[in-house]
Design goal:
The structure is a single chain. The protein is built from 14 helices and no strands. The chain has helices at 2-34, 38-41, 56-63, 67-98, 104-113, 119-133, 140-148, 151-161, 166-174, 179-190, 192-207, 211-216, 225-230, 240-251. The chain has two domains: 1-65 and 231-255, no CATH class; 73-224, MetI-like fold. The protein starts with a helix and ends with a helix. The chain is globular and about 75 Å long. It is mainly alpha-helical and 255 residues long.
């Protein structure tokens, strides 16, 4: 019995190690390829341990291709969009959890139903609306939708606020707090953990977003990182050394 248990554990550990290698290998290959000149990328057989690694690719994408500007653009857009979604999702979740109004459950159900609608379905009317506002080639179309679209965040915050003891809210009301003061001074400080999780999720979604920048941004100096990486891809070939160096930079916040 003990031998079977030992063999089972050994098999389990070996399986987990194999899965870990399979998951880590693409990132490792991306990193070592970014440390090689373009000629070495097409070398066969490939080198799993580069003999002459160099940081020139990283130096060139930041000096020749202005990658620092693109990084700051992505950081600006992702941060503002995430902060905006924190506020709208938390205050909306508070309203659904603590306030009583007619049709609340129906409205919440309709909001949850929107999670089944892919963004591609609404991108054309959204584009026409942004064009009407005069926001084409600005960051507003990349940031403002995050203020209004946050079904997962609303559900998360509503679920958390429903479990906050009623006595805390009643004590604040007795002290003369308005509903917004109850939300801001009582519920927000208590919800740092779900707010932190929501910020990370929203930040990563906006950091990796390619569709909206591809549609709305025309000026090269306003490119975000995912959009800038497309410049390294041609119709028939790609600058793999620069592309993978840029990809390494873009995945740093995710890691």
């Amino acid at each position: 019995m003990e031998k079977n248990t030992i063999f089972s554990k050994i098999f389990l550990y070996l399986l987990l190690i194999l899965i870990a290698i399979i998951m880590i290998f693409p990132f490792y290959w991306m990193f070592i390829t970014s440390l090689q000149p373009v000629q070495a990328v097409y070398k066969y057989p490939p080198e799993f341990f580069p003999s002459h690694p160099t940081w020139d690719n990283y130096k060139e994408i930041f000096t020749k291709f202005n990658f620092m500007r693109y990084t700051l653009n992505s950081l600006f857009v992702a941060t503002l969009a995430a902060v905006g979604q924190l506020f709208t999702c938390s205050i909306t979740g508070f309203a659904f959890a603590r306030m009583h109004f007619k049709g609340k459950e129906l409205l919440f159900g309709l909001i949850l139903a929107t999670i089944m609608v892919p963004v591609e379905v609404v991108i054309i009317p959204e584009f026409l609306l942004m064009k009407w506002f005069g926001w084409i080639n600005t960051y507003f179309p990349l940031i403002v939708p995050s203020f209004l679209i946050g079904t997962t965040g609303i559900f998360l915050m509503r679920s958390f606020y429903e479990n906050v003891p009623m006595e805390l809210e009643e004590a604040a009301v007795i002290d003369g707090a308005t509903p917004f003061q109850v939300y801001w001074r009582v519920f927000v400080p208590l919800s740092r953990t779900p707010l932190s999780a929501l910020f990370i999720i929203s930040f990563l979604i906006n950091w990796n977003d390619l569709l909206r920048p591809l549609i709305y941004i025309n000026s090269v100096e306003k490119f975000t990182l995912p959009l800038a990486l497309i410049n390294f891809q041609g119709e028939y070939s790609a600058q793999w050394n620069y592309l993978l160096a840029g990809a390494v930079v873009s995945v740093i916040p995710i890691l």
